[in-house]
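I hope you will forgive my troubling you with a question about protein structure. I set the record out below, with my sincere thanks for your time.
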Amino acid sequence: MDPRYGWRCYTVDGNRLVSPWIGRIPLPRNGVLDGVYFMPLTIDIKRTANWCKWGSWVGGDFATTFALTFGRVHGPFEQDYGYVEPSITSMRCARYEALAIVCPVSPERFVGAYALPVVQGLDLTTLAAVERAFGQPAASPMAQVREAIKSQQRATMTACGVLAGRAP
C-alpha cells in the first residue's frame, strides 16, 4: 500500500487537538507532525469514530472531545501491527501534513488555534467530500473502498441469484 492521504483522530482540549494515544502528541498550529500513525482508509477512521462515539471514548462527551484531521502523508511507511483493532488499517508515516479538521461540533471552536479549514460532520458523505476537496480523487482511498463495496455487493447478489443471468 502506498497511501498519499490519511486520517488521524484527536481528543479536544479547549481549542487544541491532542492525540489520544501513546505520547499524547498535540497537533501544531501548522498541522505538520513527523513520525506519527494515521489511517489511510476512510472506512477505518469512520469505524474508529463510531467506536469512540458509542461508549468507548474516555474523557467526556463525544461531541465536545473528539475531532479528526485529513492530511497528506509522506513515506517511508510502516504497517502498524500493534493497533488494538486488527481489522483497522493503521500505518506510520515519516511526515503527516493536516489539510483539514473535521469535527462533530461547531467549527468556531478552532478559530485562531489552527491555520486549517474546519468542516463540521462525521458521516461518510462528509468524509468523502473532505477527501474530494483536499485530496486527489484518483488517489483517494474512499474511491477504492466504494468500488470494493460495490464489487462485494455484486458478488453477493450474483451468488444469491438476484443477478442471475447478468454479469456481476
Notes: The longest helix spans residues 141-159. The beta strands are 5-13, 16-18, 32-38, 66-74, 78-79, 91-103, 118-120. Residues 38 and 103 are 17 Å apart (CA to CA).
